[in-house]
Amino acid sequence: MKILAIDTATLSCSVALVDDDHLLAETTLVNEQTHSKHIMVLIQQVLDMSGVSVSDVDGFAATHGPGTFTGLRIGMSTVKGLAEAGDKPVAGVSSLAALAWQADPSLLICPLIDARRNEVYFAHYRFEDGKLKEVTPEAVGSVDEAIRKICSPCCFIGSGTSLYDDFIREQIGGLAVFAHGFQNTIRASTVAHLSRERLTDYDHVRDRDRFLPRYLRQSDAEIHLTKKLVT
């Protein structure tokens, strides 16, 4: 099964094409420019490098959050448009789960994505029998909330780790293990891998109307609107 997957949940923009367990091509760009400037170019580059046309793709996948609101909308609208144009299935993958998949499988895993306002998106995961299992649900809150219940060695991974690594060390000391810097960037090939089971469940992913972002909190515009309505 050929899957074209993308990630635009954070500052990085990643696109990959896989065929079953084989990675055909992948490219990742990290900068502060809007993903809309690059996403279609990267998609075409990956297809050209693979010698595959978009009509040959069997399914599409993207991170559905949590992450930056604009980034998620850009990535998800792009793959949804490609899926609708080709009448192909589409699946969403948690950006936190994608990060966890790239971490040390022998430890408890706590992916952290910068949510600004001194908060992070986080969850806890473990690998059991080779499968990634969610230990605590996805949430948004302070770093203290994210690490409060950790009492065993834990691998921290994601954009939030470099922002709060000193605080984490101060709070839990030697229990904190940090992924290498390059692992903190979500790879689209990981998104493709995690989407495969859902994409083969054709009836489940056929309903593209349910392919929606998971923000976990209100946008700034929604918060300002709520405050105006209250006052």
Report on this structure:
- Helices cover 36% and strands 31% of the residues.
- The chain has 231 residues and is α/β, with parallel strands linked by helices.
- The protein folds into 2 domains: 2-95 and 186-230, 2-Layer Sandwich (Nucleotidyltransferase, domain 5); 96-184, 2-Layer Sandwich (Nucleotidyltransferase, domain 5), CATH 3.30.420.40.
- The strands form 2 sheets. Strands 3-2-1-4-5 form a 5-stranded mixed sheet, with helices on both faces.
- It is globular and about 50 Å long.
- The model is unreliable at 221-227 (pLDDT under 50).
Summary keywords:
Nucleotidyltransferase, domain 5, 2 domains, five-stranded mixed β-sheet, globular, 231 residues, 10 strands, alpha/beta
Lay out the secondary structure.
Elements: E1 2-7, E2 12-19, E3 22-30, H1 39-50, E4 59-65, H2 69-86, E5 90-94, H3 95-101, E6 108-116, E7 119-128, E8 131-141, H4 143-147, E9 154-157, H5 159-172, E10 176-178, H6 188-200, H7 202-205, H8 220-230
Parallel strand pairs: 1-4, 4-5, 6-9, 9-10
Antiparallel strand pairs: 1-2, 2-3, 6-7, 7-8
Brief summary of the model shown:
The chain is an alpha/beta fold and 231 residues long.
CATH architecture of the largest domain: 2-Layer Sandwich
How would you write the strand order of the largest sheet? 3-2-1-4-5
Helix content: 25-40%
The whole-number mean of residue pLDDT values reads: 92
Percentage beta strand: 25-35%
What is the N-to-C order of secondary-structure elements (H for helix, E for strand)?
EEEHEHEHEEEHEHEHHH
CATH topology of the largest domain: Nucleotidyltransferase, domain 5
- So what's the CATH class of the largest domain? Alpha Beta
- Largest sheet composition: 5 strands, mixed
The count of strands amounts to 10
- Give me the secondary-structure category: alpha/beta
Query: Can you tell me the overall shape?
Result: globular
Radius of gyration: 18 Å
What is the CATH superfamily classification of the largest domain?
Answer: ATPase, nucleotide binding domain
Please give the count of helices. 8
- Model regions low in confidence, pLDDT < 50 over at least 5 residues: 221-227
Amino- and carboxy-terminal Cα gap: 54 Å
Total number of domains: 2
